[in-house]
Amino acid sequence: MKRWLLALALLAMPAAAQAGEDGVAVKVHKDSIEFFAGPQLVTRLHTLRYAKPIFWPLHAPNGAALTRDWPMAQRAPNKALDDHPHQKSAWWCHGDVIPEGLKLTSRVKGVEGVDFWSEAKGHGRQIVTHVSEPKIEKNKATVVLKIEWRSADDQKILDETRTIHFYNLGTARLIVMHSDLFASVTTIIFGDTKEGSFGIRVNDQIRADTVGKGKLQLAEGIVAQGIKSEAFNPCWGKVSAWCDASGPIDGKVAGIAIFADPKNPHATCWHARGYGLVAANPFGRSKSFPSLKDRKDLVRLAKGERLQFRYGLFLHDGDAETGAVADNYRRFTELRGNE
Predict the structure, then answer these.
(1) Among 68, 67, 63, which Cα is nearest to 37's?
(2) 2 pLDDT more than 90
(3) Domain boundaries, position 245
(4) What percent of the chain has pLDDT over 70?
(5) What pLDDT, on a 0 to 100 scale, did the predictor assign at position 5?
(6) pTM for the whole structure
(7) CA angle 283, 286, 287 (to 5 degrees)
(8) What's the CATH number where 136 sits?
């Protein structure tokens, strides 16, 4: 039996729900985990259906759908926007994960190791093998996932413990992802590629190119809007603490920011595109990002070692200013001590 079939059996549990006094609730199903703030479904973490776990949908407090529905749901009516089908709402992975000394019989063309970013022939998969019982405390819910990163030929190359903290902040929502990567099989090298790593594909209405009416903003105040060519995108490839995408969605202004913890072992470069991709990449180096032109050292995880990252998804009404993204980034860093 393939390991992913075993995972299906392990996760075939009855629906469960827990709720705190402030209305935070979690429901665990055999193929997804739902997070609620009061009666509102904020997000659903799909654990089995796709090549890797994804958060979809993601709702701002005012109800705006912050990420793209395609290809999970049928798009209508503009098929011209059906690009990058691997960019499914929100995810965590990397585009070139090299298991030192292991022979890979199938892999994506042009990638040295296993490609967990794209879904081209030969791509890798992240298999969820265990979901913990949700823990509710005050305005926070916590769920822990055990995940195996596996090659196209079903060979495990890496283990991960992924902890999800969900916060109801009242006027905003915060999802914190803590990833504990463990080189259980062999030494792992994270290749120098821009195709990574903690990413979202925003609602087409808030694209920052000429198709949408949104904007990108970095922590330093750099703004990209109405981008006609990625060559003139001032946010792409920069090192920054956070990147926010916001704009009008069905008559409501809302946004979503990715927060990078300042204590992460490697700085985050932003693979942020006008067409709607926003991705925090701690593994890219000089080949991928001009901002790191002097960095040629690849991230290496020796067998038996661990590597930990902490990122956040901040869901807010308004833009980066009215949604108090900078203030809530500081709050995100302060919450670390309670996790």
Answers:
(1) 63
(2) no
(3) 3-338
(4) 93
(5) 44
(6) 0.94
(7) 90
(8) 2.70.98
